[in-house]
Amino acid sequence: MRIGELARRTGVSERSLRYYETQGLLTAERTPGGWRDYGEWAVDRVVRVQALYAAGLHSRRIARLLPCMRDADGGPSAIATDRLVADLTTERDRIDRMITDLIRSRDVLDEVIDTASEASASAPPPLGG
User: What CATH number should be reported for the domain holding residue 34?
Assistant: First the structure.
């Protein structure tokens, strides 16, 4: 499939797909006319890259992890190593810390919202209103 089709199917811009290619995250064959031509596997690869970016990984880290992951399901490939497991565990722990921090922030906001709501409900109406 051409780059425009891949962009349409994944919701990722053509510019981003070209960037992924320069970072070693995605590869394309070239047609005789020089157009990029991606296999069906590229859809899963782009979705996986997007998920890893969303998890806070940078492109160099993703490039090291991708060869050890199957595109279709994200499971480990035959070349997965103990290092991959250690790297993924480190990333999961970092994400867990981020989740904990976000929950703590949400709880603080909930307290402020509750307090402000109670104060507003019990306040006398404005004068002249």
Answer: 1.10.1660.10
Does residue 128 fall inside a structural domain? no
Number of domains in the chain: 1
Residue range of the domain that includes 102: 3-122
AA letter at 82: D
DSSP collapsed to 3 states, the chain: CCHHHHHHHHCCCHHHHHHHHHCCCCCCEECCCCCEECCCHHHHHHHHHHHHHHCCCCHHHHHHHHHHECCCCCCECCCCCHHHHHHHHHHHHHHHHHHHHHHHHHHHHHHHHHHHHHHHHHCCCCCCC
pTM over 0.85? The answer is no
Q: pLDDT tens-digit profile of 38-96?
A: 999 899 999 999 999 998 888 998 988 887 777 666 666 777 778 878 888 888 898 89
